[in-house]
Amino acid sequence: MSRKIRMGMVGGSLDAFIGGVHRRAAIMDGEIELVCGAFSSDPEKSKETGRGLYLPENRIYNNYEEMILKEKELPEGERMDFVSVVTPNHVHYGPSKMALEHGFHVVCDKPVTLNTAEAEEIAALVEKTGLIFCLTHNYTGYPMVKEAKQMIASGAIGKVRKVIVEYPQGWLSTLVEVTGNKQAAWRTDPAKSGAAGGLGDIGTHAENLAEYITGLKITQLCADLTIFVEGRVLDDDAHVLLRFDNGAKGILQDSQIANGEENDLNIRVYGETGGLQWKQMEPNTLIHKTNQGARIIRTSVGNLSRAAQVHTRVPAGHPEGYFEAFANLYRNFAFHVRARLEGKTVDPVYDFPTAADGLRGMKFIDTVLASNQSEQKWTDFNF
Amino acid sequence: MSRKIRMGMVGGSLDAFIGGVHRRAAIMDGEIELVCGAFSSDPEKSKETGRGLYLPENRIYNNYEEMILKEKELPEGERMDFVSVVTPNHVHYGPSKMALEHGFHVVCDKPVTLNTAEAEEIAALVEKTGLIFCLTHNYTGYPMVKEAKQMIASGAIGKVRKVIVEYPQGWLSTLVEVTGNKQAAWRTDPAKSGAAGGLGDIGTHAENLAEYITGLKITQLCADLTIFVEGRVLDDDAHVLLRFDNGAKGILQDSQIANGEENDLNIRVYGETGGLQWKQMEPNTLIHKTNQGARIIRTSVGNLSRAAQVHTRVPAGHPEGYFEAFANLYRNFAFHVRARLEGKTVDPVYDFPTAADGLRGMKFIDTVLASNQSEQKWTDFNF
Amino acid sequence: MSRKIRMGMVGGSLDAFIGGVHRRAAIMDGEIELVCGAFSSDPEKSKETGRGLYLPENRIYNNYEEMILKEKELPEGERMDFVSVVTPNHVHYGPSKMALEHGFHVVCDKPVTLNTAEAEEIAALVEKTGLIFCLTHNYTGYPMVKEAKQMIASGAIGKVRKVIVEYPQGWLSTLVEVTGNKQAAWRTDPAKSGAAGGLGDIGTHAENLAEYITGLKITQLCADLTIFVEGRVLDDDAHVLLRFDNGAKGILQDSQIANGEENDLNIRVYGETGGLQWKQMEPNTLIHKTNQGARIIRTSVGNLSRAAQVHTRVPAGHPEGYFEAFANLYRNFAFHVRARLEGKTVDPVYDFPTAADGLRGMKFIDTVLASNQSEQKWTDFNF
Amino acid sequence: MSRKIRMGMVGGSLDAFIGGVHRRAAIMDGEIELVCGAFSSDPEKSKETGRGLYLPENRIYNNYEEMILKEKELPEGERMDFVSVVTPNHVHYGPSKMALEHGFHVVCDKPVTLNTAEAEEIAALVEKTGLIFCLTHNYTGYPMVKEAKQMIASGAIGKVRKVIVEYPQGWLSTLVEVTGNKQAAWRTDPAKSGAAGGLGDIGTHAENLAEYITGLKITQLCADLTIFVEGRVLDDDAHVLLRFDNGAKGILQDSQIANGEENDLNIRVYGETGGLQWKQMEPNTLIHKTNQGARIIRTSVGNLSRAAQVHTRVPAGHPEGYFEAFANLYRNFAFHVRARLEGKTVDPVYDFPTAADGLRGMKFIDTVLASNQSEQKWTDFNF
């Protein structure tokens, strides 16, 4: 099959943030090409975006329904192979569902849907159709996250005891959602963002990262959510105590009012014989600490796990960043789509988050919200 | 009064950790001299220590009772002016009480006593006698901690919303208390350390630091304490959600099983207009973050508060450390003792923690322990 | 002109390092597509690479001469618009020259040629043809490098006095060129790399960066080059004192035997009123120091220059890295090619290094080599 | 001999910088006490200082001659054991010489004298009298410097190839010496500071550190010194290429006009199998790099050399700083003086810089100044 995997995009008009990220992440490794899109609910804006992306006029659609139906009629190899959904949260469910129902694989920005009921439907549909679904919990795409996961799995720090995962940002320290900031506007609007604010936007990344790296599951939690900015209706700060299925304990905190913080997702995991520390803002460095000293593990340096190696593109000291981690998800997804087309299998090292992870994230949100309302210390998270 | 302030020491035999710290901290600024001591419950060890410190034989005592009684008989100016109590926790109360009852000022290592009842007694005695009592929550002695406190007080980051304070160590990751490690042995023994383990040893430092820097009081908390190392009887890890009297929220975590961590006390405070970050292991740096960028504040660089300046000894780039912060407490204490002797007053910039701080620390321990046992989410901390 | 700019590539077979970098950098922003290539001097390898890149068979060529001639015959819009030359140094001159002579714009990896005579010819040809030539001194593509350049130009640190630029690597600490490492083999072979080793490979990046950021020209230098690894024939370490045209002084050092260093290009510039520091391995951070304190300047945070802004893709805290800096050159180059096709002009903020920079780099190499042989302290660098 | 070693001080009035450092460094470990002093050339100021230090009136002298003569008449055990010389450079020679001639050991701030002739005289006098002379190249007192030295000596990084040592400061970026800054005034005045400015003040620390850590000797150098600030008469910036006796090469640079730098002495040493990096401003960290990864070596963590251990006072994570490194020199010196008094020998691990180091530093200054004037590239440094 000598061609690239073909992507159709829903959302991602030229002034959007995450659309441009998805497009670059999708195409940079040369495995995927953008062939069509419905880039906005405003047909004019969709046209303008499609032209700016050098797409032919007949592959720029007015809405996702049109895109899915028209593409479906095109012959295999010409039509898109998958749909990439990069809209605000409330428009994840519709295009994902319709794409799956029409036989298209899906990449969807997180959270998978607006609420758990929708997420269950999507997860069930993925199960039923057997189609490939990638949820872009992109931070799991970093090589040093892969290395951390492998190290813990192989016992490098012993049984995990303590996990601290944080995701502080400061950009919503004031009521910027009323100042014309579109990102802020939809992310703080329950109708578009869902029942949670920062918790859904970034807290779920933290939850996903903690479980991905440790291989553990959260089983109980105790949450204290806050809306610090007057006039806001969704949480902009969350403090959560965690308990894991192996007896480990943890803390998860996210914030959008941590004034001066950029996008500082970070995690520390302590086991019986050592600890690991990773910070998204310096993603090529992983610190392995023990009581005998610390070791700086770096992308492309020394003997790394195969998982780290296959998610790295350049030699040591050439920093790979946010786009490359994101691209690792798309590249791995493309490998799976190609294998499906060619009737082959894929090495499990090429992993990516799925609809099941998305569903778990939605249930995590539900559970944290329930705990926040509860006067009981612990709320179970049993899924 | 042309002489140094005279110190008698209880505890601090030559092989102890904290005794040597107190001695260096006390004498390094040239305001205090060690004139006598009861350095061990073992008279031979006390003698040996006193000789190693070049004290005259007649000022090396067999026990603190003897020291206090004998010194009391010496004329003013020859006898010690104050007692420094540097014993394990269970021997704080006795010498402190007796010293106060015999008219001696006191410096006492933290926690102030073994339990709250004793602490109340000491605090009442200090109140009644009017004597000067310094509790060595030494981390408040760092110039950049002073700067942070002044900045917050002056509104540099706006109203405080969020406080994250951490004190992870890794040295008790295994059952070292049974391997002959004396430090570990008494600190994990309830009879010598009190009802809390790591919480009392280092968690109270974190609590004290958070309240000192922010000027806020914790009013509610929710705790999850753990004993991770089998065979241990006191907590070696604590996760605590906090609520403050101005509506701010926080997280306090301490650990002695954070494998690979040395002594990483650190704090982040976020207000409406900015944030501050300080790490004890790089104590001469304070980061002031805002959404417009971050500023590196450094000891002796630029326009610092007077509080920072008077607790600094050298120009920029000459790192001051643990001993100097500790010495700031002793120096300030000496200023107060000297002023008392000379009938003068002291500029409030020369502050230090008191018996009241010690009592508050004991009640914090009680409250965290109660919360840990409770199934209710929130436990009040009203003192 | 509703289409992407079309790239033909010379070199860059699938196992090469820099070819994959160029390809990703070229395509990631969606302005350029790869349409053809002569990827190896081995036609089989070229075929295999082209297929791996999903190119049609008839656009995979046996050699660059064939590519240029055949593409020339295709209609505008179908044929390639420019040639990207990503071969080892000794194969830069040939394809660049032929491409220019046949009317194709060129992107060429650095150094521009094997020697100064060739470089002069290329520079003259660019001048004569008016074609667009981009030399990939990629490190100038980082947003924080742009910011540093703008700050110095606008007087933010006053008149520049002192420049320290370093490029240490450690990968050639042993004679790896005889162990089957292809990268090492050609880079240490004068026939393929030129008269200089590390100096040409990385020292010229340092020279280019220092002059780009400061806006100054080196006028005199004093060099001490070394071959530390026995059996090697080209320099693997260089220490060079610099003097600049405004009276500033500097040091340039590069190394391939700085054991344990990855790719640590970094620069510090001190002016009359402040200093700047940038490190390629943490590229999103620029430190602005003054005697009153330091400021952390970060990609996408606060009020940055327009030059920094237009070379940034994502909000604060989403690290952009090596590929994105490289892509900035390609994107800017594409803007220029597109403007040429459309008869428009380009905002000078979209800059990139040129053949003239390449020629200057070659003369820098010559001058350092001459200085290294000289017993005189200073050798003029007057071009 | 159950008493502290007794120190008399020359210089160090209360408003001086380095006097207070010496006093704290001398007394903090409890081995030395200050018994007398001639603290200023102004007798009134000397009296005032002595009283501020709680000395008896009869041990506060009008000048060093008086101090040495009067103390000489006191009985052993009452009189001072050694003289600490902490005056500006031009008053090092006089008191050192007179002290040695009258049988007193000496601690002297660096540089040892104003010029080489004087230094030779002092070194000869030390040799002749057999008295103990400590030159306070204090940066060699840090535990991690000791560790680095031991690691290199034991082959941990293989044969040394490359040394980069830097000492940038920014405090003399403007002509502060005319603004009433006393430190700046004497340090920029040839009559008080000597023939070199920054080179003598801080460049010699860099030279001493490089040779101490590596165990190598500089044999040739090539210097470019600058006076950047108009109106200044001594160098405020130095760039020096180095060659060492084992074939290694190096760069030494110091500056007092590196605007925004505090006191950033730092060194990187690369050997055949690894590299080491140490920064004075974060002195408890030593980075050991190899091409397989980097290790963070920290004071009190893991298996350190005995040399590092005996120069450390506290467990891991309790930062020791400038005073403690300085104190290590005084403590070691005290051990030697005590051993002399008691007829014992001292373990060589308790080392400190000597008059010979001071003489070498003076000759280094002479050689750099000669090189700076020379048009020849290399000037020999053969001593």
Descriptive tags:
five-stranded parallel sheet; globular; 383 residues; 2 domains; Rossmann fold; homotetramer; Dihydrodipicolinate Reductase, domain 2; alpha/beta
Describe what this molecule looks like in 3D.
Four copies of one chain form a homotetramer. Chain A is of the alpha/beta class. Chain A has two domains: 5-139 and 328-353, NAD(P)-binding Rossmann-like Domain (Rossmann fold), CATH 3.40.50; 143-312, 2-Layer Sandwich (Dihydrodipicolinate Reductase, domain 2), CATH 3.30.360. Helix content of chain A is 35%, strand content 21%. Chain A has a nine-stranded mixed beta sheet. In chain A, strands 2-1-3-4-5 form a five-stranded parallel beta sheet, with helices on both faces. In chain A, strand 1 (5-10), helix 1 (18-27) and strand 2 (32-38) form a beta-alpha-beta unit. In chain A, helix 4 runs parallel beside helix 5 and helix 6 (143-153) packs across helix 9 (198-214). The longest helix of chain A is centred in the last third of the chain and has 21 residues, at 322-342. Chains A and B meet through strand 6, strand 7, strand 8, strand 9 and strand 10 of A and strand 6, strand 7, strand 8, strand 9 and strand 10 of B. Strand 13 (293-298) of chain B pairs antiparallel with strand 13 of chain C, so a sheet runs across the interface.
The greatest interface here is: A-B, 46 and 46 residues
Q: Could you tell me the mean pLDDT of chain A? A: 97
Taking Cα atoms only, what radius of gyration of chain A do you get, to the nearest Å? 21 Å
CATH architectural group of the largest domain in chain A: 2-Layer Sandwich
Order of helices and strands of chain A: EHEHHEHEHEHEHHHEEEEEEEHHHE
Order of the strands making up the biggest sheet of chain A: 13-12-11-10-6-9-8-7-14
Number of domains of chain A: 2
- CATH class of the largest domain in chain A equals Alpha Beta
CATH fold-level topology of the largest domain in chain A: Dihydrodipicolinate Reductase, domain 2
Ranges of chain A where pLDDT stays below 50 over 5 or more residues in a row are none
